[in-house]
Specification:
The protein is of the alpha/beta class and about 450 residues long. It is built from 16 helices and 14 strands. About 40% of the residues are buried.
């Protein structure tokens, strides 16, 4: 079977959940004798005179088409790259050359819906996995421009337009000083063009959700978010798996009496690392030593990392470790006792939670979205009120005060699903879709 996996970015330049997931799928598909190619958007800094620059590359022997798009393909001010016709045309030509058996899209960000439309038009079985909220939210994360959580998508598209404008300081200050009046007035009288742009985006993307043969939601949370827009017979909930092999021989944790909290992920504002540092510094450790270990790229958001270092001050218990090679994942988890996920945004199916369980580490997480779904409070981890550093500190303090709590939480952990099982399930889905498509073709003839 020939499988194409389009994804917004890919390694080695871009390392994130969707990118690593796509790499794992590709490797396991190939190990089972299938042909795999990845298509990704490498950058938005291409030659303005060239609509799509394409370069065929290899990453760990996996063919990767790296596309460079011109910066001017993004609508000024709204970042609305969602239906770039030249990308759809390139994709149509690519499909005609390669004749894949199935195309499995990983979310929609940057790739957009034009390649999705081209694939369906070519009569190729099409699968879409929803890794995030991109189809619903121009900012992807359902996090407003002022950093707050979007609890309900505005009925009026001007609400989304204003949300994006809040990223700019002058709009945020005006809205803050007027108690939200500036935003309400702008939405009512000033954002006519922006309302139209967002409205068109909504219409286009909701129509696009009717195109794939199958849509996969990795969590019940995300399935509920999209339930109103996707026919139930075409959406399934399938929890992602992870590679369990690195955790088969995880090194033992240090036996020195130190309680170590750990964070693994993108060091970015929406991940709430500042919240974790604030909570950690508020702990009363009594006479029990505690440490905080932060793992993640320190170069992606340098201004934010500078703020975090200032926040940590001279506290020698806080360690910034930076990035690490994926091959060291078990070693890194072995270096601390509890994983903390302080995200300020909705998370779908965080791989770090599944990996933490594979490593036998309980998780403290914000009580919302897919994070809450994966962590059972007081059973295999602890919940805290989202965006509340004091409540996070309270949950962390429980592990200091009650020395029996950590062993109890460890005993409550169940091994996560293996990515090998997920791959077998996906291949079964692909084969059924191909058989259905072939059956329809025969009937037409």
């Amino acid at each position: 079977m020939k499988i194409v996996l389009p994804v917004h970015h890919f390694l080695p330049k871009h390392v994130g959940g969707a990118e690593l997931y796509t790499l794992r799928l590709s490797s396991l598909f190939r190990a089972r004798g299938h042909s795999v190619e990845i298509v990704c958007v490498e950058s938005l800094d291409g030659d303005p005179g060239i609509q799509v620059e394409a370069e065929r590359d290899f990453y760990r022997d996996i063919p990767v088409w790296r596309l460079r798009l011109p910066r001017d393909c993004v609508s000024e001010g709204l970042g609305m790259l969602y239906d770039y016709a030249p990308l759809g045309a390139w994709f149509a030509d690519y499909l005609q050359r390669e004749h894949p058996d199935v195309v499995h899209f990983q979310a929609g960000y940057l790739i957009g819906v034009a390649p999705l439309r081209a694939t369906v038009s070519a009569g190729i079985p099409t699968v879409l996995t929803l890794h995030d909220h991109w189809f619903l939210c121009p900012r992807i994360m359902l996090q407003r421009g002022d950093g707050s959580i979007c609890t309900a998508i505005p009925d009026d598209p001007a609400g989304c337009a204003w949300c994006m404008l809040l990223e700019k300081r002058r709009y945020y200050i005006a809205d803050h000083l007027t108690g939200g009046l500036a935003g309400r007035l702008a939405q009512s009288f000033l954002l006519t063009q922006q309302r139209t742009v967002v409205s068109q985006r909504r219409s286009t993307l909701m129509d696009a959700l009717n195109l794939p043969d199958l849509i996969i939601a990795p969590s019940m949370y995300l399935a509920r978010r999209f339930a109103a827009h996707i026919p139930l017979e075409r959406m399934i909930v399938s929890r992602g798996g992870i590679d369990l092999s690195p955790f088969e021989k995880i090194p033992p944790a240090p036996c020195d009496g130190v309680l170590r909290f750990g964070f693994i992920g993108l060091i970015a504002p929406h991940k709430g690392v500042h919240l974790l540092i604030e909570a950690f510094r508020a702990l009363n450790s009594h006479e029990r030593p505690v440490e905080l270990h932060l793992y993640g790229n320190l170069d992606a958001y340098p201004a934010y990392v500078k703020e975090l270092r200032h926040q940590a001050g001279t506290d020698e218990r806080i360690h910034f470790h930076g990035r690490f090679e994926p091959s060291r994942i078990a070693e890194v988890f072995a270096s601390f006792d509890v994983t903390v996920l302080p995200s300020l945004c909705y998370e779908n199916n965080p791989l770090v939670i599944l990996e933490s369980y594979a490593a036998g580490k309980p998780v403290i997480t914000a009580a919302m979205a897919g994070m809450k779904e994966l962590v059972n409070h007081a059973e295999n981890g602890l919940h805290f009120k989202a965006a509340d550093a004091r409540d996070l500190a309270r949950q962390m303090q429980l592990l200091i005060d009650d020395t029996d709590l950590l062993p109890r939480l460890r005993r409550g952990i169940q091994p996560p699903r293996s990515i090998d099982q997920e791959v077998e399930d996906l291949l079964g889905m692909y084969e059924r879709l191909c058989q259905q498509r072939n059956s329809l073709s025969i009937k037409v003839v």
